[in-house]
Write a structure and sequence with these properties.
By secondary structure, the protein is mostly helical. It has a single domain, classed as Ammonium transporter AmtB like domains (Ammonium transporter fold, Orthogonal Bundle). It has 15 helices and two strands. A two-stranded antiparallel ribbon has the order 1-2. Helix 3 runs antiparallel to helix 4, helix 7 runs antiparallel to helix 12 and helix 12 packs antiparallel against helix 13. The relative contact order is 0.16. The C terminus is likely disordered.
Length: 435
């Protein structure tokens, strides 16, 4: 993988711009999925939270986030271990003062990353649906966009130590994540797990015996429309990310788009088939989570696998997501209305591992020996460092500024309690004693 900024032709720059312009569709799609999977009396608050976290994430990344992340040729702080540089954080300047926004590859990467951190910030909203205070979600987003995301993204894309595992330690081509299965999706998904654990389950989600009760999503149309929008956005995310952040030849964008579509399609169909077998009818919400999980898993290796392998990645992702949603709910008591943990955290981890299993990386004849070890180091870093970090930061936030809404807010619904009005005032009524 590159250790210096890639040089792009005018055509490649134009192509990257076109792909970046598609990425907001992924943000809009996930917002609709989260809204549809929640209760009707929280729909307006969920969309307002989505708009809010996008604004907070973009501003926070502009002020301090990129300064910690940097680009592949940025200066950084490092330790010397065994005579090797262990680059752990960028030394760029705040307020994007180190990057001339002139259409250079570095400036395009900043633009893409601003959208990417917004996408990561949307993910935890799904796990906190129906009970996460809007103000707490905004502050949590500052922690994500200002520290957790840029720190790990520097290690993967900014010349950090995970990217250099190949050069310094002989582990394949270093940790590989072309477009964000780990940096965007896993970081967002592990934050979602932290939020779900800190908030606890929704009111009346579990019986006194500890058995979960079904609280179905209120709008299947939002869910499925969100999937289609997310597909458009993911094609842009994977294409632009692979070219600007992983140094992939722009000529591979067609392969990347095809692999993205195949992953999503095979994952969504797998989820529908699994639920058809288990419940005698396909489950819409789990099929939606499977589709999103396929998109998530596609990002890491979209430029390094062949289309038949993309189908395999999607099938496995669809199965993992579908089964793990129930496992988290039944075995761990984690109430995740949006399926964010399964789709983004587990889907992302599988996508990263799939690069080691199936990926062909680097120029012809390059050795991929040790590539799986490099991927495992990245997974261990996510689970052993990023997750405790994001959980600890949000736990401290909860001690200072309570994240869960008051019981009255859950009884009334988040729309009335936080916004003073519902998403469907002509059709829905809110009984403060309703479940």
């Amino acid at each position: 993988m590159p250790t210096a900024a890639p040089s792009l032709s005018d055509a490649a720059i134009a192509l990257s711009i076109a792909f970046i312009l598609l990425v907001p569709f992924a943000i809009a799609g996930l917002s609709l999925v989260n809204t549809g999977l929640g209760r009707s009396r929280s729909a307006a608050q969920m969309m307002m939270c989505s708009l809010g976290v996008v604004a907070v994430a973009a501003l926070t990344y502009f002020v301090i986030g990129f300064a910690w992340q940097g680009y592949v040729d940025s200066q950084g702080f490092y330790f010397l271990i065994g005579g090797k540089e262990w680059n752990w954080i960028s030394a760029d300047r705040f307020f994007l003062r180190s990057v001339p926004l002139n259409g250079s590859p570095a400036s395009l990467a900043v633009w893409l990353e601003m959208f990417s951190v917004c996408l990561a910030a949307i993910i935890p909203l799904g796990s906190g649906a129906d009970r996460w205070r809007m103000s707490a979600a905004m502050i949590s987003t500052v922690l994500l966009a200002g520290w957790t995301y840029p720190l790990f993204a520097h290690w993967v894309w900014g010349g950090g130590w995970l990217e250099q595992l190949g050069v310094n330690y002989g582990l394949g081509q270093g940790f590989i994540d072309a477009s964000g299965s780990s940096t965007i999706q896993c970081v967002g998904g592990l934050t979602a797990l932290s939020i779900a654990w800190i908030l606890g389950p929704r009111r009346n989600k579990y019986t006194r015996e500890g058995l979960p009760t079904a609280i179905p999503g209120h709008n299947v149309v939002y869910m499925t429309a969100g999937c289609l929008l997310a597909l458009i956005g993911w094609i842009g995310l994977n294409g632009a990310g692979a070219v600007l952040l992983a140094g992939v030849d722009p000529g591979l964008v067609v392969l990347i788009a095809v692999n993205t579509i195949l992953c999503a399609a095979s994952a969504g169909l797998t989820a529908a088939i699994v639920t058809k077998i288990r419940f005698r009818k396909p489950d819409a919400s789990l099929s939606v989570n499977g589709w999103v999980g396929g998109l998530v898993a596609s990002s890491a290796g979209c430029a390094f696998i062949k289309p038949p392998e993309a189908v395999i990645v999607g099938i496995v992702a669809g199965g993992i997501v579908t089964l793990s949603v129930e496992w988290f709910e039944l075995k761990l008591g984690v109430d995740d209305p949006g399926g964010a943990i399964s789709a983004h955290a587990l889907g992302g981890l599988w996508g990263v591992l799939a690069v080691g299993f199936l990926g062909t990386i680097g120029p012809a004849g390059a050795s991929n020996s040790g590539q799986m070890a490099a991927q495992l180091v990245g997974v261990a870093t996510l689970l052993g460092f990023v997750f405790p970090l994001t959980y600890g930061l949000n736990w401290l936030l909860d001690r200072i500024h309570r994240q869960r809404v008051e019981p009255e807010g859950e009884r009334q619904g988040m729309d009335l309690y936080e916004l003073g009005g519902g998403a469907y005032p002509e059709f829905m009524t809110h009984d403060e004693h309703s479940q």
